[in-house]
Amino acid sequence: MPPGFRFDPFMASLEKLIKIQPQNIAFLPFRAITGAKDSFAALQDQKEFLPRYRSKIKELYEKHRATRPVVEGMRPFIKERSDFPQGNNVIDSIILAIVYGMLADLGLKER
């Protein structure tokens, strides 16, 4: 989470996790993924998703030069991957935090 998010070290850590083949993964406080096959699939999904997410954030920021339109533009991108109930503002706070952290990592916002 921001403001300390660093994309490259995060991706390197993700690679290390994939290599050690964990049996379970916990995303506290949200949920846990159990079983080696499902854990691998979740890690692999993040490895493929995060670069696309980062690219989309950069594209939106370069177009609008403001955080709010980036968050608005990312909302459908993230909500389609979320099982948070409709109307739950927790996911909106998470989207804002992740967008801001990514913008800071890209050098587009201050940490």
> What is the chain-wise order of helices and strands?
HEEHHH
The largest beta-sheet arranges its strands as 1-2
The Rg value, from CA coordinates, equals 15 Å
Helix fraction, binned, reads: 55-70%
SS summary, helix count? 4
| Mean pLDDT level | 90
Topology, number of strands: 2
Strand portion: 5-15%
Spatial separation of the terminal alpha carbons: 11 Å
Number of domains: 1
Biggest beta-sheet profile: 2 strands, antiparallel
Q: Spans of 5+ residues with little confidence (pLDDT < 50)?
A: none
The gross shape turns out to be globular
Strand pairing plus helix content: what structural class? mainly alpha
Detailed description of the structure:
This protein has 111 residues and is mainly alpha-helical. It has one domain (7-105). Helix content is 65%, strand content 7%. It is built from 4 helices and 2 strands. It has helices spanning 7-20, 36-64, 67-79, 90-105, and strands spanning 24-27, 31-34. Strands 1-2 form a two-stranded antiparallel ribbon. Strand 1 and strand 2 (31-34) form a beta hairpin. The longest helix has 29 residues, at 36-64. The radius of gyration is 15 Å and the shape is globular. 11% of the residues are buried. The mean pLDDT is 90.
